[in-house]
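To: structure desk
From: M.T.
Subject: fold request, one chain
Message: Could you run this one when you get a chance? Sequence is below, nothing fancy, just the single chain.
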Amino acid sequence: MKILVSACLLGCCCRYDGKSKADERVLALGKRHTLIPVCPEQLGGLCTPRLPAEIQGDRVIRKDGADVTAEYNKGAREALRLYSLLSCDCAILKARSPSCGKGRVYDGTFTGTLTAGHGITAALFQEKGIRVFTEDEAEQI
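Reply: Done. Structure tokens follow.
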């Protein structure tokens, strides 16, 4: 299978803090599948490192109050374009991220509190019928 994967899970230093979150469970899938890295935030035009952002209602807001919803939406559309162009079969996206989170994301208070919801890219992918997993679900693939 071809699997679109949040680049930070593959060891790319593209997170908001300039670091990665390499995940051995995801990396192990590379022995059996083709893993294609993607960072929706970077595709949306955001730099690395960057201020953290969280979802507040229907907007994505940086910690300093700046609205980066447009960048997150652009990144989600570009990630979807790559998914389709490369004929991917599913996606593994970074849990809890305002872009990639599935099921639970940070609540917009910048206190580390989680709430039910999806990141912008994960929501778009699911809307399009794409199977989305987080790194915590890698063993389901």
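Reply (cont.): Helices lie at 24-28, 40-43, 69-85, 120-127. Let me know if you need anything else for the meeting.
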